[in-house]
């Protein structure tokens, strides 16, 4: 059974997945710091299901980009579980998984998420109806500028999170990535060394 953790945005996601069966899934809005929520919620899930943490055979975690502080919380918990149980850890990048959710669309995709400081994190992708591939590196743009320039992406499917952009080609992605991220990470074998696993941060530290 895998534990999957997603803390990149205002929605924290935790899932327990056994093969293709989702044994448990919890999605929470950020009412308090994730550091105060995540361990208690993990305990609640295991207690409610009558399961032992020893059943975990691997961990999957979102490494960003996203909220740097929240990502560090998720990564810290994931690495602690990996070390304490001697199980592998897999890590995916948030925008890649968001784009992959819409892989059945054929054409260009723009994924844009709220990066804080009134800025958006962006990346462009191309989809052939089965797979998605990045077209660009990550970029940062002022949210106000993105709204003004949204017309230049008229030929794209735009997937946004927490940006309040509008248009006929805009989809608001609201779900956490704990389940989709799990399947994506295992499909592409995104195994990491927990000693060197760090969040994807787009601004200078």
TrEMBL record:
Q: Which UniProt key words apply to this protein? A: Hydrolase, Protease
Q: State the NCBIfam families in the record.
A: T6A_YeaZ (TIGR03725)
State the InterPro entries in the record. ATPase_NBD, Gcp-like_dom, T6A_TsaB
Q: What region holds the Gcp-like domain?
A: 32-147
- Transmembrane domains' residue ranges: none
Query: What taxonomic ancestry is recorded?
Result: Bacteria, Pseudomonadati, Aquificota, Aquificia, Aquificales
Kindly indicate whether the keyword Hydrolase belongs to this entry. yes
Protein's UniProt name? Putative peptidase M22 glycoprotease
Q: Which organism is it from?
A: Persephonella marina (strain DSM 14350 / EX-H1)
**Gene Ontology process terms (BP):** proteolysis; tRNA threonylcarbamoyladenosine modification
Recorded hits in Pfam families, A to Z, give: TsaD
What are the GO MF terms of this UniProt record?
Answer: peptidase activity
